[in-house]
Amino acid sequence: MKNFFNNQSQETIDDKQIQASRVNTMISDQYEIYHVKDDVNQTQTLYHYHDCYEIHATLEGEAVFYIDGEQFDINAGTILLIPANKMHRIMKQSSEYFERVYIFMTPVFLKRYSTRKTNLEACFGNYGLGEAKILKSNPDELRQQLDFITFDTAKDEFGVDVTFEQALVRYIIFLNRLVLSNNSELHPKSNEINERIDEMIKYISEHLGDDLTLEEMESHFYVSKYYITREFKKHTGYTFHQFVLKKRLLYSKYLLRERKNASQIFSDCGFISYPHFLKAFKKEFKMTPKEFLNLLQDNEKIHLEHFETKHYR
Predict the structure, then answer these.
(1) Which of 108, 22, 73 is nearest to 189 (CA)?
(2) Mean per-residue pLDDT for 297-311?
(3) Residue 130 belongs to domain spanning
(4) Rounded to a whole number, what is the distance in angstroms from the first to the last CA of the chain?
(5) What's the pTM value of the predicted model, to 2 decimals?
């Protein structure tokens, strides 16, 4: 069966090895967990997205994190709950040491352990259009909750896989309870990099079906298109047109999940014709919309190139 939960990002500039260990080796194809202690290089962490849920937990250190144009300071005890297809990046590391745990997870896994009374997906909101949540927990409690990542999952020991997954589910329950507590969520800080570009990113997200040209943005934001072109590339790593196209294609995946018909959704994503949409979709995701819909009917599997290459993206 083909894997279709793939990390998408821009190529990095240098060949620095990251210090990352994959935790759940050979246990499940429904989630991947990484324990990371590398330095953050701004040139290596451009905006990217995943087709699955991401949980980013900071165990030690400080950094600046961007999610769809909003900036957050994260430190020990900070937990990011990032829905599928949400553009995000680590902007910069603010401390000498930065330790975190990434968990990438399919909806299938969470549904398997959910019940009528306990919906484990609730903390992420809507799969395709949910808003990211930034939570604050006690650093010592968070490290204790993640203690299960030290399990030796490669051991050929009866019950090790079940024990590991039970601990993972307990962690997801812990996160849902944090969300339900209503007093753990952090708010974005004012942007120190380029507030105008971030306003444009938010505007793009809210008008994906409209005419998003440089001329329209120039008129709406009262800045020259040359300024937009220069600053957008500097701020996001993408040209203005590349960024708009990626956002539209990510939105198309959400609509495909909802409506199951590619010919009915292309104009809602801002494409002028179905052939144009089809060509762009195939180039970005290496499959047709029909193939994507067929994969949705199968048992979704996760496969990330995020930490399997020598680059951190």
Answers:
(1) 73
(2) 50
(3) 20-181
(4) 26
(5) 0.76
